[in-house]
Write a structure and sequence with these properties.
The complex is a heterodimer of chains A (499) and B (189). With 499 residues, chain A is an all-alpha fold. Chain A contains 20 helices and two strands. Chain A has helices at residues 10-28, 35-57, 74-97, 105-124, 128-146, 153-184, 189-198, 206-223, 231-238, 241-247, 250-266, 271-293, 299-319, 333-361, 373-376, 378-392, 398-412, 416-442, 455-473, 476-491; strands at 65-67, 70-72. A two-stranded antiparallel ribbon of chain A has the order 1-2. In chain A, helix 3 (74-97) runs antiparallel to helix 10 and helix 3 (74-97) runs antiparallel to helix 19 (455-473). In chain B, 76% of the residues lie in helices and 0% in strands. The radius of gyration of chain B is 22 Å and the shape is globular. The N and C termini of chain B lie far apart (61 Å). The model of chain B has no long low-confidence stretch (mean pLDDT 79). Classes of the chains: A mainly alpha (499), B mainly alpha (189).
């Protein structure tokens, strides 16, 4: 490996350096000025986003390279842009949530970036060892961040619960990895995938199957798919709101990205097995998430169950693997729909959680206490309405387009029952989203008005809501990009290995 | 059993005194392996079923040492030393200290009742049986000592696994940072 090859690690190096820089800044910044660390971090993240886009527009874009267990390609870059967007918004939410003179802010923003680094590595990993390490890198800071309010017993409970579930997840993942290694004799995903594709009989190796199932269980824990979803509402309820906004989006997107890479590139011989598995998982996740959300009173719990349901919709994409055009067998609509829906989920969920962050800083945690919000603060109520409608999938918002693509993929793979179930679930979800809207708009309550958010919070909410509107009306900017990103992935497992 | 089979094939292929020595090695090795396996599994059962959490911790130490023994049976003395130092020396002792320092807050005999006990029992023994059955299909690898083992491991760490190696350093930093901010006395945020 020459020094010039370090260029493929630029995104990781940039984020890691920023995190370390924030730690130093925390040390030199006087008390009461710590908020500026957050602003600095947000600005730098914006710079990185622009820089990586230039990288993509540059001659690097079609270029894919790997270095022993690390892959740099357009697919990874797409996800890295998404993670930067999430951490940008989460940083701005946090700046507005925490008080000026709160302690430990520098570390907090650094921890946010470390999680992002873990997500970066996860979507770039091509080695089981790398996969496990980045999985841990993604999880460990989040345990700490959930328990960041030490005097709040609910926050501590949330951190402890997330830690215990995370430990079980890691154990499952490691056990799965060890079995896969025993069956294939390699930790390299490329070699492993090539082995799978070339020797069909390897696919029916029971040890390999058990290992893969255990790994899948670990992934399902992280994305909170039913029946591995029990932790989500409790953790979300107790953790500080901006942490939840981050926790509900970044790790889920990262794990979905990793699964896309694994299943699109290599699991062809096992297809009949996992298509059914994913269809059942998706059906249960959608239905249980939506039905349980109907009875929630706490806003964060409501969004937790809604997030579970959203993951269910995404899993529909994994089940729909039939090629869209007969002459283009590598082009699978399901994966394209997944990539699009991830962006849709990001904007809608972050907008909703941003408003929940803002409300919880003013002491509003329940659906009941939203009464009369439309009069107290019409802007917040309107933005919340838009984000909830997008989550429910109402046109012309981005959630609708995302669901349309997913169900279209299901129909074109002849999974009519799954598409129908998805549509029924969307209708069910409208009930609880509209219940929140009704409480905001039609139930009156006299009370003190809630102040307008600060400038940075307005910027963050505006970015999220504009994303919902613009991509909803003009979705082709993302679909075009996702097509470009996916095509090379499905063709070649190995592109170019550096020595 | 598979060790005998491997040795038998070796023996058929090339005869000679060296190979008789090898067979002796293999036989003594499999005796070592099976006795260690019995030790580890019984320790593991003790960890799961003992009510006294301190005794469970002690048996965990035994299981760790047994695994170190397996490494010795595989002629990997370096990993054996690391296993003994890190798992038995650091982790198990840390667990025991943790129990000792926090025990007065809990009842000594932890009832540990679990509604899903029987489901877990059936599931874990099912998976164990499945694994025992399917591991028969695996081909045995070589159990003879690898030359220049430490050198090879070092090269692998610095070349093939250079990136994961670097990631570990960042991961340790994160863990330290997290532990620090959780254990600090001042109220955060």
């Amino acid at each position: 490996m020459k020094g010039s090859h370090l260029i493929i690690f630029i995104p990781e190096i940039a984020v890691l350096s920023l995190a370390l820089l924030l730690l130093i800044f925390d040390w030199v910044t006087p008390k009461g000025k710590k908020v500026w660390i957050g602003y600095f971090s947000a600005v730098m993240i914006l710079v990185f986003m622009g820089g990586f886009l230039c990288l993509a527009k540059n001659r690097f874009f079609p270029y894919a390279a790997s270095f022993h267990g690390f892959v740099f390609d357009a697919f990874a870059l797409y996800f890295k842009e998404l993670f930067l967007l999430v951490v940008f918004l989460a940083t701005l939410f946090s700046v507005n949530f925490f008080k000026q003179d709160d302690e430990g802010q520098g570390e907090y923003y650094a921890l946010l970036l470390f999680v992002t680094l873990g997500c970066f590595l996860l979507v770039s990993s091509a080695d089981l060892l790398m996969l496990f390490l980045s999985f841990e890198m993604m999880s460990i800071p989040l345990y700490v961040m959930c328990a960041y309010r030490k005097k709040d017993s609910k926050s501590s409970e949330s951190g402890l619960k997330y830690f215990l579930i995370g430990a079980i997840t890691s154990a499952l993942l490691l056990y799965g990895i060890s079995l896969v290694y025993a069956a294939t004799g390699t930790t390299n995903l490329h070699a492993f995938i090539e082995g799978l594709v070339s020797a069909n009989k390897l696919a029916y190796n029971p040890i390999l199957l058990l290992g893969l199932i255990l790994m899948l269980c670990a992934f399902c824990f992280k994305i909170a798919a039913v029946p591995f979803h029990m932790w989500a509402p409790d953790v979300y309820e107790g953790a500080p709101a901006p942490v939840v906004a981050f926790l509900a989006v970044s790790p889920k997107i990262a794990v979905i990205g990793l699964m896309t890479r694994l299943f699109l590139a290599g699991m062809q011989p096992l297809q009949p097995f996992w298509v059914f598995l994913f269809a059942v998982l998706a059906a249960f996740t959608m239905t249980v998430g939506n039905l349980t959300a109907l009875f929630q009173q706490n806003l964060k719990r409501l969004l937790a169950y809604s997030g579970i349901a959203q993951i269910g919709y995404i899993l529909v994409g994994f089940a729909s693997i039939q090629p869209f055009f007969k002459n283009m067998p590598t082009l699978q609509l399901g994966y394209q729909a997944i990539l699009f829906y991830l962006a849709a989920y990001l904007f809608s969920d972050l907008a909703a959680f941003g408003i929940v962050t803002y409300l919880s800083a003013h002491g509003i945690e329940d659906v009941k206490s939203l009464k009369g919000l439309a009069e107290k603060n019409p802007m917040i109520a309107f933005l919340f309405l838009i984000s909830l409608l997008s989550l429910a999938g109402v046109p012309p918002l981005v959630g609708f387009v995302g669901k349309f693509y997913l169900f279209l993929a299901a129909v074109s793979s002849r999974l009519y029952w799954l598409a129908l179930l998805g549509v029924v679930n969307s209708v069910i979800s409208l009930f609880y989203y509209l219940r929140v809207a009704r409480t905001m708009y039609f139930e009156k309550e006299e009370g003190v008005s809630i102040p307008y958010p600060s400038f940075s919070m307005q910027v963050a909410l505006l970015v999220a809501v504009l994303g919902i509107l613009i991509i909803g009306i003009y979705p082709f900017m993302i679909t075009h990009f996702s097509l470009q990103v996916l095509t090379p992935l499905s063709n070649v497992p190995i592109s170019h290995v550096m020595k | 059993m598979r060790f005998y089979a491997a040795a038998d094939e070796d023996h058929k292929a090339q005869k000679g005194n060296i190979y008789e020595n090898r067979i002796r090695l293999l036989m003594s090795n499999s005796v070592l392996f099976y006795s260690l396996a019995v030790l580890i599994i019984s320790c593991a059962f003790a960890v799961v079923f003992l009510r006294n959490i301190f005794h469970a911790g002690l048996f965990l130490l035994g299981a760790f040492l047994g695994v170190a023994g397996i490494y010795i049976a595989l002629f990997n003395y370096f990993l054996a030393a690391v296993q003994a130092l890190v798992y038995s020396g650091a982790i198990a002792v840390l667990i025991l200290f943790g129990i000792m320092l926090t025990q007065r807050h809990y009842r000594k005999e932890d009832p540990s009742h679990n509604a899903f006990k029987w489901i877990a029992f059936v599931l874990s023994f099912g998976i164990a049986g499945f694994l025992v059955d399917s591991f028969r299909s695996l081909k045995p690898g070589s159990i003879f000592p690898v030359k220049h083992l430490l050198y090879q491991m070092g090269m692998a760490l610095m070349q093939t696994y250079a990136i994961p190696f670097e990631v570990i350093s960042a991961l340790l930093l994160v863990a330290l940072l997290g532990a620090f901010s959780l254990a600090r006395e001042k109220e955060d945020l």
